[in-house]
Fold:
Amino acid sequence: MKRTAPKNQFALIGVAGFTLFCLSFAGCQPNSPADARRTKQEPEVEYLISPEMAALNLPFSEAVRVDNMLYLSGQIGTLPGTTELAEGGIQGETRQTLENIKAVLEANDSSLDRVVKVTVMLADIAEWPALNEVYVEYFPNKKPARSAFAGSGLAFNARCEIEVIATVGNGH
Structure:
């Protein structure tokens, strides 16, 4: 009596062989420290501060760049290079705050249209509508995600503080 293998036996051997082949690659380790660095790269982090801000000797960076993201420290409505707040109440301070943010973004290869997240801190939440009147002038089309809250006091007795996260690099 002649014995023959079932027709699907070779298909099963093929699947098993392919599975072992794939699993052998899943367990591969880098051959050298250089290979390990290429497979697991640390993010590029850069702490940024302008000469004007450095002269104020404040205990923080204006921004921190991590790969293609830029994280700005909270900005208040101070006149550039000083700790003096802009005149005009909440709207004057909001305008100056957003001008300060715009300047930091542009100095670091970004812009207001690349902002993806905004956090607004107010000394008085009742001033929220007045802040928004100015805010929409700076974000007329692309509306970043936004959070807001009121606190019991902001630095230098500011009426508002705004921090943003933006993308940087190619693709302006």
User: Anything to note?
Assistant: The longest helix spans residues 89-107.
